[in-house]
Amino acid sequence: MADCLFCSIVEGKIPAAKVYEDEWCVAFRDIKPQAPLHVLIVPRKHIPTLNDLTADDAELVGRLLLAAQEIARQENVAEAGYRTVFNCNAAAGQMVFHIHLHLLGGRNLGWPPG
Ligand code: 5GP
Ligand code: ZN
Is residue 113 part of a domain? Predict the structure, then answer.
């Protein structure tokens, strides 16, 4: 989609520190990390928010979580623990309107989140 930051990163038009990619998604390090490990797992398909998911996207969402599992293993946080988060719309602080799964790890993560 034109003028979407994450579509541009997926298409390679804007650089990012990629850590993983497959046919469903591209994952890269967050530019402003909130933990020692902070990766964004972004589907190749442009979907603005979680509210826009349909049943046709069920496999895509599962694939994002499988990518998170793989990256957590690759980045050596799988055993210690990690968190995955989707922010949806303003109250959750969503800033980029192309869904993305945050993967955070490498420190103890407080609960409840802010
Ligand atoms: P949201 O608040 O929408 O859930 O998360 C957007 C995330 O994208 C933020 O954590 C922000 O730091 C990250 N981000 C914004 N612009 C860029 C960018 O140009 N490159 C990378 N790698 N991350 C970005
Ligand atoms: Zn997009």
Answer: no
100 is catalytic: yes
Query: Could you tell me the CATH number of the domain that includes residue 29?
Result: 3.30.428.10
**10-61, pLDDT tens digit by residue?**
999 999 999 999 999 999 999 999 999 999 999 999 999 999 999 999 999 9
Residues with CB under 6 A from ligand 1: 5, 16, 28, 30-32, 40, 87, 93-96
- If you ran DSSP here, which 8-state letter would residue 67 be given? H
Residue 112 resides in a domain = no
